[in-house]
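Figure-free illustration: sequence to structure, shown twice.
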Amino acid sequence: MIMLDSHYRIIKGFEVLIEKEWISFGHKFVTRVGHGDDKHPDADRSPVFLQFIDYVWQMAKQFPYAFEFNENFLITILDHLYSRFNKEEAKNKTISLWSYTNTHVDEFLNPLYSVRTQQHVLLPAASLIRLSLWSELERRKDDLEKDLQAKHSRAGNGGIVSSSNIGSSSGTASSASAISGSQFNTCELILDDTFEK
């Protein structure tokens, strides 16, 4: 759909695509990601959504003028997918990711975006030479793991790390760019078991 219809290459359109093709169809986000839960058999874990986001990033690298959103937007979606620590607290203390992204649109705009590319069908090159490692995502993952380990060792609560002791002390949503350093964003894409069948 992203290749054929330029509507899905803008921020609001991409949000609709995720709602329509992933959430409404009942993708088992919690089961597929695992979220550190040992209750899910390894056979149920699958990074399909991560692969989809990586595919979109690869296309955005090949067609930098065709996407209204930037890399930060895609990373923010993944940050919120993987930031769930305590389900009950997440349901009570979080807002929809789309509420956050739609109120902070300036952070997610691609300065190279051109409206003139809207009528074009994208035909990405699938050659291995054209594909690259998403180094920013890997770097952030390493930073987040180090951050978690440090906070986990300082938590002093029997090894339990919850969303209440990770993040900003004020409990408000921080800038998505601050996540890689010392804070987790408290917004969350609502991807819970309600859609699992």
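We now fold a second protein in the same way, so the two outputs can be compared directly.
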Amino acid sequence: MKARGRAMGAFGDYVWSYETPKVMVVKNRNLGITYRLVQLLILVYFIWYVFIVQKGYQESESGPESSVITKVKGVTRSQHKVWDVEEYVKPPEGGSVFSIITRVQVTPSQTQGTCAEVGSGRARGGGAARPERRPLPPPGEKTGRCVPYNRTRKTCEIVAWCPVEEAMAPEFTILIKNSIHFPRFRFSKGNIKDSRDGYLRTCIFNETTDLYCPIFKLGFIVAQAGENFSALAEKGGVIGVIINWNCNLDLPDSECNPRYSFRRLDPKWAQVSSGYNYRFAKYYHCSGKSTRTLIKAYGIRVDVIVQGQVTDAGSFLSLPTSSRRLLLGPLEQGGNPQVGRGSHAPKVNSGRKPRGSSPHPWL
């Protein structure tokens, strides 16, 4: 009975006892300096690296939903034909990928003789041809004379199969209409200025003065990609137009602007199948028979690529648990305990407020 009483007494002491941590204050200058330095390092880590560098207080979304509509305008004339949009733009639907024919391999009714060279030297006052640098070999042998190419220009005369095919004009204009949407933040924007005064009829893209006029000259796109238009038109190639939307929703919407970059996408130094070309046929009826002319076309293919990311200030307490414990550990554990007193940890709401209630819920 005595053993049973002692067991019940020990159990009662365990159940009805109350424990509290005991804090011991050590007054030591070296230990105190070390302790404060560690606290300072942790504070600098969170303020500089987590918040400023990594922007850990922000939520982000990448890969916007995007639509691209393109339209090419311009008319050019070669020595034997006038070309318009319906003939040199493939496909005609105006999507994010299209090509502009710059040279065709088939030219009807060619004969051997002398004719004006395309894109070559210009005449000086005495009528002699002045050679200019040409990235590609001429299509014939130069005679040394300068002959009229059109009403305003003279070029070198050559002995070749005439007429000589030429590249399409680099003055064609391309409208690239882009709209993006980030569903997580319900944010949408476009790259065209909302104006009703006929702004798009007269403007040309300029990164400084006309950022929201997405009308580009073909020659400008090729030059920005670091390519020579004549060389690219000869063999063809693929140019990428990259539209980048990197936006911070903590700032006004006017600070969210598209950034354009241009580069060649196909390997131009490849020895096998370099450049860009394709074949198509034109059909007609002759003497009751169906006939076609097969044409090999060289051109510049334009790929419009849209990418981007938006960031928005999220809840401060949505930081990773390990990071939050380092910064808010004493508060989440009930503050600094004192001798002989109990304390209770405050309630912490780790949920994020819906967008629109406050841009910075954690402040």
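Summary for the second example: Residues 29-53 form the longest helix (25 residues).
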